[in-house]
Amino acid sequence: MRCKKTWLIIASTLIVLSGGGVVTAWGLGWFDKGVHNVSVGENATSESVTGNLTEALALASAAQGKLQQWPGYQCIYLRDERIDNELTENSLVLTVLHEPFHVMMEWVEPKSKAGRKAVFATGKNEGKMRVKIGFLKMSLDLQESITRKESRHTLVEAGLLNLMNRFVKSWDEESKAGETSTKYSDVELSGQVSGKKYTHACRCVETDHPLSTKSKYAFHRVKIYFDKTSGLPVRMEGYDWPSNGEKEGRLLERYTYFDVKAMPTPTAGQFEL
User: Fold this and answer.
1) In a 10 Å sphere around its CB, with 0-12 CB exposed, 13-18 middle and 19+ buried, how is residue 243 labelled?
2) Which of 158, 157, 132, 154 is nearest to 144 (CA)?
3) Has this prediction a pTM greater than 0.90?
4) Helix, strand, coil: what percent of the chain each, to 5?
5) What average pLDDT does the chain have?
């Protein structure tokens, strides 16, 4: 009798973890969310100075122009996002083809997600993303990453060029509105991922929006670190609006890009799942 009950429990568990059950478990946070082989720190190498958005816009436009010349790239992608008041951390390999837009994320950590893949390929799969979890492969609507509380964004929003496109547009509009406070500083950003070390001498742009503009902007404060050698963004941080007497809002999003390598001839076949 006990043996029969044990097998029923095993069978039920397998059913839950098959098909949509995996997606449900994914969204409910049944998998661990921590990364263990990642560390990132920074050291200011200059005092911060106030200014306007002219330099920020020039940095973002230069990075945008450089990325537009690349067919695609691959990099280490650290994605930290606050979901349901909890900061979830992910270490991934990000691969992007710019035209037509294709993107693939491959999880390294947390350990329970290692080997998972998510792919979007323009013109394929009826506009859905393909997801591989273990031995299962499925097609999901792009919004599922938000609905299931896996991320604050859809897969098609990922990537350095998308990031720069957003900030070139935003900073151009903000410079005309004259509402944004801007500071600049020099920072050494260092990190270690899976035993490999990275160091970047960066120009850091920090922008703040007044509380009266809360309905206009996604973040109260933003920091973007541009590598002085490559000109590419290495890290972006977005902070919430202060509440309940807080002096500073909490970190909402933090994206770090290490070991960015241009791919001279990426092909759509690299994004098959």
Assistant:
1) exposed
2) 154
3) no
4) 30, 40, 30
5) 89
